Structures are given as structure tokens and as C-alpha cells.
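Kindly review this protein for my students:
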Amino acid sequence: MFRIPVILAVFALCSCREQNQESQKTQTPPNIVLIFTDDQGYQDVGVFGSKNIATPNLDQMAADGVRLTSYYSAQAVCSASRAGILTGCYPNRIGIHGALGPGNNHGINASETTLAEMLKAIGYKTAIFGKWHLGHHPKFLPTRHGFDEWFGIPYSNDMWPYHPQQGTIFNFPALPLFENETVIDTLTEQSQLTTRITERSVDFINRNAENPFFLYVPHPQPHVPLFVSDKFKGKSDRGLYGDVIMEIDWSVGQILDALKKNGIEENTMVIFTSDNGPWLSYGNHAGSAHPLREGKGTAWEGGQREPFIIKYPNGLKGGKVLDIPIMAIDILPTIAEITNAELPEKVLDGKSAWKVLTGKTQESPQEAYFFYYRVNELFGVRYGKWKLYFPHRYRTMDGQEPGKDGLPGDYRMVDMETLELYDLENDISETVNVADEHPKVVEKIKLLANNMRSRLGDSLLELEGSESREPGRVE
């Protein structure tokens, strides 16, 4: 007579526990892992079209997560692109242009709020393992901008005495390897760097599995010079470049496995993308942006459209492919929304893309995206399916002899003298200029561009913006 009530009581208790666990799961802020490669082409992942580089871990991550096919880096060069994804601002807004090197005396301003600082303010542990590239002087180091831990290099891995053009074009000092703010080594070769970065990342996850964390993994590879450990040397059908990508894919797998082993896979958002497109002058040591036009250092699609995969089991349904434009500047506001972090007080350019990622809207978070390069030169604008370019000078390897085995080829400079408009929905390779057929579209985008010029300026037209901010400087 008493079994039914007992069973019902036990059932009710279990049900209550399950509800509490579910409630706790949804209330616990997610961990954030941002994996950021260097100079990787749009095609250089299996699910993005590579036929000769095996990337099983990234392919599985895409199957379990969301793949974006119209994601853009903030700019087509190293430092600027990192400034964009870490601050939610167009890099020219905060005075970061080009690729900072050992001779520069400026970097990210202390008044800017990084993604790490935003999350640290709500209790996250933070770490960066890899390349920083937002200033190498002590006041600019990541440990002064929200990161609890750092292991890595301060700028690009080719800024060292072994550059093939050392002594003729460059005169680089030794490349330092940092542990937090201490130089622990100077690098003479880099074959173990990807492995060491991965080991640090796994260790950080193991140590912080009980509290929310932000792990930023900006790999120095596949930026030239290419280096790979023995475990992947000669493994790819794409030569040394393919070997390097295979090792990065292995690194992604190690990080995902660590999350799973610690029981935090479900409540961790993992993002994989790259800083800009392939450095095409390096030929067989460069990636591929196929079917996109051009690569790094240009505003063409191959310069800034990047592979992007995001996995977050607690928040995102897996197996989706989205072709809605999103840019790196939108990442910080998106993460702020899902973690309930407060946005920085200063003006941002990014907007949350969470509704896009969850399928609640098919509209891009922004009306348009602006493609700046060099020192504040507005090259182009993406508006819906359209991409408009303004007259400017750009580099190309078209018709040029490419570099080989670590030596660069010479770019040819091209002057674009008229407006060019492309329909990316029907012409992803940007082959047919349709500006004359769509004058109303051209005029609309010109209005958007003029509005942005009034705010951030445009060196091509000798215009200064009213909202531009200064970088930090060494006094």
C-alpha cells in the first residue's frame, strides 16, 4: 500500500533535482575559448573546401556546431585584426593599423576594454597562449590588459633575425618568448611552439574547470616561416603548409578533449577562426582562399572572409551553416550578451550576433561592414549581398611568379580607378563589376560610406573622423 506514494515521492524528488540541475546549467556562465590562427585561407579547412588537408577535429566541430560562411576579420593584417576581435571596434577607431613590430613605440591604449578585461570583471579566469601583437612594451602586454596568464610571442614569428630578407629589407632583433612579463627564451626555431601552446591550453582548462574562464589561443602559425613538429611532418598532401594546418587541427582536438574530460564541454563556447587571409606571395607556403579573390593585405573577399566555426552545446543547435554577414567586431558584444557582462563604456562598432547564431533572425546585426586598410584608407563596403569598392591601390600576385619554400615573390600593384560593385550572392569570386547596372545600390552604399567617413575618417580622401581614438604610446 505504501509503495506507490514512495515511488511518487522519489520520482518527484528526482524530477526536482533534474530541474534544479537544468536551472543551474543555464545560469552558470559559459566558458569561452577563442582559437585564432594566423594567415589561414578561407579554404584551408575540410568543411570549407580543402581537398588535400585533413582536418577531422574541425570538421567534427562544425558538425556539432555552427559554421559561418560570410564571416569577416576586422582587417586584412595582423595587429589590426586582433584589435578588432578583442575590443569590438574597427581597429582604425582605436588607432591600431597594420602589423606592429619591434620598432614600434605604440600599442593598445589602456583606456580600451579588451574581451579579457570585460570577462575578468565578472569573475572569469583569463589566459592567452600564443601571439599577442598589440604592442611589445611592458604597458601594452596582455597581462596589463586583462589576461592572468600569457605564454607566447609579442609579434609575428617572422620578425626575427632569420627572416629571408634580413639585412636587405629588415633588421630584426631576437624573437623573445614570454612567460607573463618575463622573457624566458629567444627563439632560433619554432617547431615545438604549436605543441607547447596546446599543452599550456590544456593545463589551463584542467586547472580552471571549476570556475568560468576565457582562453584565447592565437596560434603564430600558419604565418611564415612555417614550422611543424615531427609528429605531423610530411603527413599532408599539401606539403609543409598542410602539415602545419593538420597540427593546428590536432591542437583543436586536444582542447576539445580536455573540455570533455573535465565535464565542461556542454557549457563552453569554442570559436575557431583566423586573423586574415593567406599571404599569397609565399606560394607553396601560403594558404588558399579559393574561390575568393586575392588574399592577405587586400579588401577583396580573400583578404578578410575567413573560416569560422562555433560550438556551444548548451546554447546552439549543431549542424547549421549560416551565410549571413558577421564581422570580428561583433564577437565581443555577442559574448557580452551570453555571459551577462557589461559592455565597455566607450563607443563600440560591433553588435551582438547572438540572434543570428541561434536562428532567431536571418538579418545581419549590421546594416553594412566597412573594409579599411593601411592607415585609415576605406577600400570597400559590404551591404547585404553587395560589395562596393572605392578607387584605391592594392597588391596582387596575378601574373607574378610566386614565392617558394619560404621565400616571397613580388607583388604587382594595381590602381583601381573607378567604383566597382559585386554581387556576392551570385559572384563570390568577384569577377563581374555590376556598378553600372545598379546605380541605386551604389548611391546607397556611398551614403553609408560617407557617414562612416565622418565618424572614422578616410585617408584616401584626406578626411579625419570625429570619433577616432589614439593608441597607447611609450613616453
